[in-house]
Amino acid sequence: MSSSPPGLRKAPRQERSRLMVERIVTAGRQVLVEHGYERTTTNRVADAAGISPGSLYQYFPNKEAVLAAVVDAYSAEIADQLAAVVTDRLDLPPLELMRASYDDLLDILLANREYVRLMTRELPHARVAPHVDQLERRVSDLVGTYLSAARPTDRVSPSTSAWILVRMVEHLCVQYVLDDPPFSRQTLVDELVRLSAGHLA
Q: Could you tell me which of 167, 165, 138 has the C-alpha nearest to residue 151?
């Protein structure tokens, strides 16, 4: 954890304190995924961390402060993975980049299905929205830069296309992971590529 989580009672200055905060956040993530937002409590988090509730309260004043740190850390991790999906493929032609990126996006979402469900259906919107907005802007900037160099038409600006494509693909992939509709993942990827190519054509 590169910086102190928000809502801490005191910033950890010693290595032992930093490790304790990381331990609590890791336990909070485990409890949140296993029990959901409503059933996550500081006592459960302390138990999962192998510490007393009093030790937890030395650093976090309440459940919301723990969950804020969990969401910040978890969201940053997933954002890095999703940004890498695009960054690692910027040398590919558009259709190849799309197909490979959409496949990897689904891999990441499926690996974090329960957290995706929590983010979209349980956690308070005010807690989640800034992370979603930041992620969308980050990926849109990458896609916009790519389209500026690779796009064969100027019907709309690269930044406009990036905004449309990123949010379309994100929404459909998230819904696919959560709803488990009666068609294959390959069908979804094929359709996403077709829709994206149609927009860019």
A: 165
